[in-house]
């Protein structure tokens, strides 16, 4: 029993740390001036349209996605889904004004790349705890598994939908959006596998 409790606490700690790293990375990339990651474009649009913070916008989007997944396929939602989103959204606002950028675009571009990498590392670390998928992943897998669709095509369609909606609401599509789509997947997969191996979870 004690071992099980220790393992659960370890997983919760990893989830929280991963969530914080991911939130720091996404805000670092978001405010560098090269647009936002896919979901961040939608957050920007909602924030500008309804005059709320980026963190609040991310939380609103997540709640909508969690409710959809609960109705469509509740097996996708676990304690980690909710805990991750609370920590993540709170930290997005907390870290929003903690970054220093340069007057040189190429330096800001490097900062943006670092932010995307940190976001992917944090997401991979959080996922390694296996306490439930993030809200976006929950919707992706719910749609794919219930309809026997390929996950990659569902994710591509959702990415297009959230980016287009975000842009229409005033969000900024840019280099960051493209870079996130290209490099985040492989990094998340690598960190997820390594974290499970090294941390023995």
UniProtKB/TrEMBL annotation:
Keywords recorded for this protein, A-Z: Membrane, Transmembrane, Transmembrane helix
Family matches, as Pfam families: DUF6198
Domain of life assignment: Bacteria
KW Transferase (keyword) present: no
Transmembrane segments: 12-43, 49-70, 106-127, 160-183
Name under which the protein is recorded: Integral membrane protein
